[in-house]
Amino acid sequence: TLNFPLCQWIECFLLGLLVGSVLIPEPHILTPDTPRIQLRLAGDKRKHNEGRVEVFYNGEWGTVCDDDFTIHAAQVVCRELGYLEAVSWSPSSKYGKGEGPIWFDNLHCTGKEKTLSLCPSNGIGVSDCKHSEDVGVVCSDKRIPGFKFVNTLPNHVENLDIQVEDARIRPILSSYRKRIPVTEGYVEVKDGGKWKQICNTEWTQFNSRVICGMFGFPGERKYNARVYKMFARRRKPTYWDFAVNCTGNEAHLSNCKLGRAAELKTNGTCAEGLPVVVSCVPGRAFAPASMTGFRKAFKQEPLVRLRGGAIVGEGRVEVLKNGEWGTICDDNWNLLSATVVCRELGFGTAKEALSGGRLGQGMGPVHMNEVECSGFEKSVTECFFNKESVGCSHEEDAAVRCNIPAMGFQERLRLSGGHNPYEGRVEVMVERNGSLVWGTVCSEGWGTMEAMVVCRQLGLGFASNAFQVRVAADTPEYERVVSQCPVTEVDDVSALNQRLVLISLQETWYWPGAVSADPVAMSGVRCSGTEMSLSQCLHHGAHLSCAKGGGRNAAGCSVSAPDLVLNPQVVEQTTYMEDRPMFMLQCAYEENCLSSTSGQVPANSYRRLLRFSSQIHNNGQSDFRPKASRNSWVWHDCHRHYHSMEVFTLYDLFTLNGTKVAEGHKASFCLEDSECDEGIEKRYECANFGEQGITVGCWDTYRHDIDCQWIDITELKPGDYIFQVVINPNYEVPESDYTNNILKCRCRYDGHRVWMYSCHNGGSLSTETEQAFPGLLNNQVTHR
């Protein structure tokens, strides 16, 4: 028996009925008087499965008017194209104005019609619309199982887009079958529920480029054709009915045109040809171990990068210009331009071109606007663009989601026992004695960075929480649980951890997981947060070392995350010095906001304070909330407020060679929305024990005149220094980007005055420029 909850059995059963009765379409049996049409999605697309609805009729492509168009009509369009369902539709030529006749107007579909021409309308070609009313649709990513393309216009095959259920690269040679990712093999399409090869008589390098891009590879290469000829003689291929005609800049096979009908011999073989084979070149991040030397030799800083994405191959597009990183405005942003970015960074074609700051807002200048690419450029910086970005703000930052190779990472990791797929105990698959087994990860040192990698590996977004359960003997937690357990159940700490599950799930944040996966299979895990899988992090390997009962940890994932960024200009503009008597600094002294020497001086002495304001923006996609729940916030009687985070920011002064000479820190006295962008309402206010946090699009200002908003520089000698601020330094709260949590400035102090200048956020300058900034590399913040 399978260990499935009853509801999952019912869900599977109903899905089976759905597949049997609805999803597998009946053949197109049309009456002779039904107008024969073909459809395609065209225009300024940002995904391959969306676009302006275009109809091929009477030898000419035309459009559909949005009058009376509904989701039911969109459903007919998507299913006629082989997609499972329609997601949405858009009026008013969202995907640009089409050309030619407007074939349909005032469509009244039920959603069950086999073809759009069967829907009641004014009559084909009868319309009073303009192309400004052209309708567009978004179809689901999933294709209809068993879908078979039926060409109702055999004399116009060159005008039709490819419509198949699925496509794949199937490894043929034994040397490629176990290789991950699969880079070489037959190109196969699934049509009518059956996988078929393509005859290579009209195959071109442009076709190979598109196929490789679809599967996450930036380019293609030659292969040993002689070996495949030998294989084809031994096994008879099953060929698809058509050739393929791509121009090379398509993001997906469905955007390519059908080629001519394949010329097959009477025995089913390809006339003067063989099955199509492609050999793809993986990007640097996915290259096999044999290419490691190449990766290490690649030292040149790229001109383009992605920021703010949850998984590899997605993020806000940023370009380097004059030593400073900036963003791209989303005007005219489309799949062509996005694909150039993806290939440039070592990924495949673009899966989606995103607009409107969907993956978080950047900082600094907007370098490019109205980007137009042909699709063959080596870099997006080679594309035509408008250098003027007047009217563009970071609310219009462009982003991409790229196709990446199938690495199988998700199959070796799971979250077990959670309330939903986004949470649970972390369990990994490892090889033990020649077998693959599931086990837990030692919780020692487990934190946000490790949870980030888990969520990325599973494709679940960002970490929302990183939980540990470690109970040592003779601790209050141990005694609390023992008092509620039968004596036989707490013979050791390991049994106590099991009991924690039964006592308080909410309090311990612990899920039991699979009993068979209880043994610790991975220990000593240390991640930087950028790895694609947990196995790429530092760990002990086969030599496990984990304290008794310490193998319990869990992760919670979220599709979005906050992103805190300091405003450098505010720091520069508000910096000043103040000499303040000790008797006025008692509360600050109690909260360790003064240097260690302050406890040895009389109350009437003075401390010299370097004061400044901090304006902290949330540029991410979700609100920044403190990790601790309200009932665990710490009340500080002297300042009369709650600390939701004991260390929210660190303030430091370094010499130019990286030696720390003065420091300060600030707890989250009050995380709240001081101001917000236009149209955004404040959500967090600290008064009356209110909720603390920073809303997306808002900022929290800690003014220069409040306690602890300083560095104690009483003992500082005159000279040149590096001033540094770090937000969320212990990574208590997950963010989409930690590199911009650091702010650095040049600071000059002559004993009487202080100057703060050249302030900038981490990651905002080129590597060369940052290396020229004294002390920057020596003072990189680490999470350990």
UniProtKB/TrEMBL annotation:
Described purpose of this protein according to its UniProt entry: Mediates the post-translational oxidative deamination of lysine residues on target proteins leading to the formation of deaminated lysine (allysine).
GO biological process: chromatin organization; collagen fibril organization
Subcellular location: Chromosome; Endoplasmic reticulum; Nucleus; Secreted, Extracellular space, Extracellular matrix, Basement membrane
Signal peptide: 1-24
InterPro entries, per the entry: LOX-like_protein (IPR050912), Lysyl_oxidase (IPR001695), Lysyl_oxidase_CS (IPR019828), SRCR (IPR001190), SRCR-like_dom_sf (IPR036772)
Enzyme class: oxidoreductase
Taxonomy, superkingdom: Eukaryota
Alphabetized SUPFAM superfamilies for the sequence: SRCR-like
Broad class of where this protein is predominantly found: nucleus
Annotated protein name in UniProt: Lysyl oxidase homolog
Sorted UniProt keywords: Basement membrane, Calcium, Chromatin regulator, Chromosome, Copper, Disulfide bond, Endoplasmic reticulum, Extracellular matrix, Glycoprotein, LTQ, Metal-binding, Nucleus, Oxidoreductase, Repeat, Repressor, Secreted, Signal, TPQ, Transcription, Transcription regulation
PTM description: The lysine tyrosylquinone cross-link (LTQ) is generated by condensation of the epsilon-amino group of a lysine with a topaquinone produced by oxidation of tyrosine.
Residue ranges constituting the SRCR domain according to the UniProt record: 39-140, 169-281, 304-403, 413-558
UniProt keyword Cell division present: no
Family recorded in the similarity comment: Belongs to the lysyl oxidase family.
EC number of this enzyme: 1.4.3.13
Entry coiled-coil feature ranges: none
UniProt GO cellular component terms: basement membrane; chromosome; endoplasmic reticulum; extracellular space; membrane; nucleus
Cysteine disulfide links: C65-C129, C78-C139, C109-C119, C246-C256, C373-C383, C527-C537
GO molecular-function term, one example from the UniProt record: protein-lysine 6-oxidase activity
Cofactor(s) needed for function: Cu cation
Catalyses which reaction(s): L-lysyl-[protein] + O2 + H2O = (S)-2-amino-6-oxohexanoyl-[protein] + H2O2 + NH4(+)
